[in-house]
Design a protein that fits this description.
The chain is α+β, with helices and mostly antiparallel strands. The chain has 2 domains: 206 residues, Histidine kinase-like ATPase, C-terminal domain (Heat Shock Protein 90); 197 residues, Hypothetical protein af1432, CATH 1.10.3210.10. A 5-stranded antiparallel β-sheet has the order 1-2-3-5-4. Helix 1 crosses helix 18 and helix 15 crosses helix 21.
Length: 499
């Protein structure tokens, strides 16, 4: 028999996913053996790159169990439909399950093709964020009430056992065959530190989602925290926020100041006037007629808008002294997200004037932490490298985590140092995780998150189903087709602005 060809994992793609905090996904309809092995190989590479290879064997077992359970759940739906049975009716369910295993195993390809034709997928994803790993398996059917209860009963009972051996000896399931596998999986997860709170089974919006949240090993978390603390000291060595812009912001904040005083102060700085008018006249703001004076700009954009534009210009001045191609690419992405954020706010959130006013600056500065890491002085990075070596921490891991998914914390610290408003600080800190933002900043943070996800989606780096439902709801997106239309429109508009 010919040896099965193994699909090669793109290691560079795995690294980029870790750096950007976006999920790696594998979607399949029939879960053939080569795809199952490919997903497991991705997971192993993912964990190895995160210096968490000690979890690999346990998580690969769990991934296979969950993926096959998802496949079985999809097969069960098409089987019941073929037999004219209502899977949500308890009597029909019990009747159908009597011959389900025998009937489907003897003609499995027929049922697998049926579920593929109906679009019943199994979607596997893995993502890292804030020193935690999230692994999800989704399948496109919802659990029945008694399936849901049965699974949760098994999870609860599994918590009573202290080892896999004890679970096997105490609990066997003859009705469907999956019960024992589920118990073993829970016990395996328990062994690597996953508590009941970090294992979730959710059934909603036509999907069943099984989610595992895994903390990094204690040593890795401690080391990354300590080394990050050392790196954050770099903030004390950053250039100060430009004094001329700080002075203008003081005038704007003075309740006794007149609009004319503010316009005059800005106009006296030729460089600042040029940059400000360039921003105000960019396609992002879509002014009906070009603005030629700072006085007009202040009236058109408003004081809050002018203040935010000054924060934008000041940050760019402070952080672009030593630009290389990588830093330029980060700023191009930042401009894209600023453009997306402002246009989304203006079209979908227009009744919230503060959100509209803050959208551009929050979008522009969302990745400030990444830019700081890229502009760090070589001496600082040498010191960090030495610390990593001393502690036995992979320098590559630190760079991927710190310049990647942990960059929000760094950026927010810089924003605080420069006395930026809390709205900007929080948008920077939580733009990858808007649901964790304080309630008063959740809307603007969700806006920046969604703009960022639209950009990644346009580049083919993000799956529609993995976007936070609250973000989709905020912008009235109910299908992938609607998302694609919006993403294409923004992408085309941004490209026109660049030419």
């Amino acid at each position: 028999m010919a040896q099965e060809k193994r699909i090669k994992v793109d290691v560079e793609k795995v690294r980029k996913a870790i750096e950007s905090g976006i999920p790696l996904t594998v979607t399949t309809y029939t879960l053939p053996h080569e795809i199952e092995e490919y997903a497991c190989d991705i997971l192993k590479t993912f964990l190895t790159e995160l210096d968490q290879a000690q979890m690999a064997d346990s998580l690969i077992y769990c991934l296979k169990e969950l993926a096959n359970n998802g496949k079985k759940a999809n097969t069960k739906r098409v089987y019941f439909e073929e037999k004219g049975l209502d899977i949500n009716d308890k009597a029909d369910y019990e009747l159908g399950m009597k011959n389900f295993k025998m009937d489907t195993m003897s003609n499995i390809n027929y049922y697998l093709n049926l579920q593929k034709d109906k679009g019943l997928y199994i979607k596997i994803s893995m993502q890292t964020r804030n020193n935690k790993i999230k692994v999800e398996v989704r399948n496109r059917v919802e659990l029945t009430n008694f399936e849901y209860k049965r699974i949760h009963d098994k999870i609860t009972r599994a918590q009573m056992y202290n080892s896999v051996e004890e679970g096997i000896a105490s609990l066997l399931d003859d009705s469907e065959g999956a019960g024992l596998g589920l118990v073993i999986m829970i016990l395996v997860l328990k062994k690597i530190g996953v508590t009941e709170e970090n294992y979730q089974v959710i059934s909603e919006n036509g999907e069943t989602i099984t989610r595992m949240i895994l903390p990094f090993s204690g040593k890795s978390t401690s080391d990354i925290t300590d080394i990050s603390g050392e790196f954050v000291k770099l903030i004390d060595g950053l250039p100060e926020f430009p004094e001329n812009i700080t002075e203008i912001n003081r005038i704007i904040n003075d309740p006794n100041s007149q609009m004319s005083d503010i316009a005059l102060k800005i106009s006296n700085d030729v460089s600042l006037t040029t940059e400000l008018l360039k921003l105000v006249n960019s396609a992002a703001f879509s002014l009906s007629t070009p603005c030629h004076s700072i006085g007009d700009a202040v009236k058109l954009v408003g004081l809050r808008g002018i203040k935010n534009l000054l924060y934008s210009i000041g940050s760019m001045k402070a952080l672009t002294e030593d630009s290389n191609e990588e830093i330029k690419a980060l700023w191009t992405h930042a401009y894209r997200i600023a453009f997306y954020s402002y246009n989304l706010a203006r079209n979908f959130l227009r009744t919230d004037k503060k959100c509209v006013d803050d959208s551009y600056v929050c979008g522009l500065l969302h990745d400030m932490g990444k830019i700081i890491f890229e502009t760090a002085h070589p001496e600082v990075l040498d010191k960090i490298s030495a610390m990593c070596e001393e502690r036995g921490v992979s320098k590559n891991l630190f760079e991927r985590m710190f310049a990647g998914v942990n960059h929000g914390d760094v950026g927010s610290l810089i924003a605080k140092k420069w006395n930026f408003p809390e709205v900007i600080v929080n948008a920077i800190r939580y733009h990858h995780d808007p649901l964790s933002a304080p309630e008063e900043f959740r809307k603007i943070t969700t806006l920046i998150y969604f703009a960022d996800m639209l950009s990644h989606y346009s580049e083919g780096n993000f799956d529609y189903s993995l976007i936070e439902p609250s973000a989709l709801k905020m912008f009235g997106i109910t299908s992938e087709e609607a998302l694609k239309v919006l993403a294409d429109k923004l992408d085309n508009s941004f490209k026109k602005e660049q030419h």
